[in-house]
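A common beginner's mistake is to predict each chain separately and then try to dock the pieces by hand. The better habit, illustrated here, is to supply every component at once so that their relative placement is modeled jointly.
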Amino acid sequence: MKILVLISNVPDTTTKIRFVDNNKAFDTSGVQWIINPWDELALTRAVELKEAGGVETITVANVGESITEPTLRKALAVGADDAIRIDTTPKDAFYVASQLAQIAKDFDVIMVGIEASDYNGSAVGGMLAELLNFNSVSAVSGMNIENGQLSLTREIDGGQQKISVKTPVVTIVQKGIAIDPRIPAMRGIMMARKKPLTVLPAVEAGEKTSYVNFELPPPKAACKMVDEDNVKELVRLLQEEAKAF
Amino acid sequence: MSILVYTENWDGKFKKLSFELVSYAKALANELSTTVTVLSIGKVADEELKKLGNYGASKILNVADARFDSLDNKALALAVANAAKSEGSKAVVFAHNNLGKAIAPRVSVKLKGGMVTGVTALPENVDPFVVKKKVFTGKAFANIQIHADIKILTLAQNSFELIETDNKAVIESFDAGVSDDVFSTTVNETNKVTGKVLLTDAEIVVSGGRGFKGPENWGILEELADVLGAGMACSRPVSDEGWRGHEEHVGQTGKIIAPNLYFAFGISGAIQHLGGVNSSKIIVAVNKDAEAPIFEAADYGIVGDLFKVIPQLTEEIKTIKS
Ligand SMILES: Cc1cc2nc3c(=O)[nH]c(=O)nc-3n(C[C@H](O)[C@H](O)[C@H](O)COP(=O)(O)OP(=O)(O)OC[C@H]3O[C@@H](n4cnc5c(N)ncnc54)[C@H](O)[C@@H]3O)c2cc1C
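With all components supplied together, the output reads:
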């Protein structure tokens, strides 16, 4: 089984969000870039499955400019066998999915994080599946391979389901797929330098949406403090002022 | 020409979020001078389907076909796209929940539409069509223009008020036109927790962090949840340590919730935690550290010991409820 893990390059989760160019663009100055947390968990599970046997190769792919290469190298250090970067600015989800469709068709299982922590789109995985005419399973929180068969756990409202699905398939994964993300070891980092990172040109694809501008949320009013010994007052405020119950 | 809404059902029933979707679609339809059609897939009684009419649906396409119970994403997307085509829909609206997020992107490709997920309001403009959504896990908003003729939207939960109308809907059975060979998902086992308030449905959520000190101290929070009819949540370290189940983990990497009222007890208020709860209407924080960042996000706060405050809170609420 060949696995492709899609890697989004996102700002560290503690990044202070600012905009430039009349609020038309995200201010990337001083930003630390990381593997999108869900993609990192997806990759971790792929590596675990490979170690258990049953997976031939793990490829990671990203649509982005050369600044994303350190993130791809990190993914190689975690345990992917090779990396592909499609060299273009990711314009919108459809554009990104169209780029990935050129390479993804050759894999049995494609793993995508449920969303990217920057633009929170939750869109590329489903679009890619549709472009390839593959099935897709969303909210996947567990993955196993038994005798070449894929079995998945998927989150549903108030519970979970164990399902089987035919490959090729796009799995859109979330919390639970792996517990802690793998931290690359020194040996992994050394080996990653020699692993192939292929750069492919972008294909023509339309974009269907564009960012007009960004806004920061309005500043919040100060927190109203209530004394520890006056819980009654808190309940009164919640009831009468906030009308919360 | 209509606007199509896809809503799932839960054991044959709709939820508030279904009615939010229809209310939103109706308001959008008014702006675009058109009507709302709802697609319902699965077995739902006519009485229940009619409720959608109260929020502005003119027509309900009913696909009472049990094959879709496996939630096969490819098959569901085909069914929705076929309905949109047969209605000539200009826009298709989904919930921004597990199923909506799974299907909407596929439908957008099928219909060559432009999609924005997690929208929080009606479009500011319909020509050009510009909608707002949260980005950077709630740290900012973006206004996004859709260039394609067909607009695909997923609506963030609790971001639109219910609007009741005196409208009545006609119910039609609809042949989704999906052949057996499209389905390739087999459900082998389903496990559901019953009798608990679902976190994603809860109007009130009580949440605990590492301040609880261990797995044995949660009885007081369960009792508070009980008297409030609230859902229960926790911070990530709490679920990582196994003090509480993973289904309760809220935050950037857990569930994203938007209740009316969120109580954070013994939670420091890390940015990744806030990412999952900052859409709550009112946040109440109880923390013994007056400098904890949670107080910057909260509307009401108590600097104090959660083990003392929670039982008092439970008693107070019992009193006002009786
Ligand atoms: C990529 C990434 C993703 C993450 N995703 C999430 C996420 O989704 N959700 C999440 O929650 N975290 C997430 N985190 C972790 C986050 O950074 C914090 O570590 C976590 O939220 C802290 O949990 P906490 O508030 O329970 O614990 P702590 O930060 O340890 O805070 C405990 C608080 O309890 C207070 N306290 C202690 N005793 C009492 C008492 N008796 N009475 C009252 N107050 C008391 C303390 O003053 C303290 O403020 C993520 C981190 C990373 C790096």
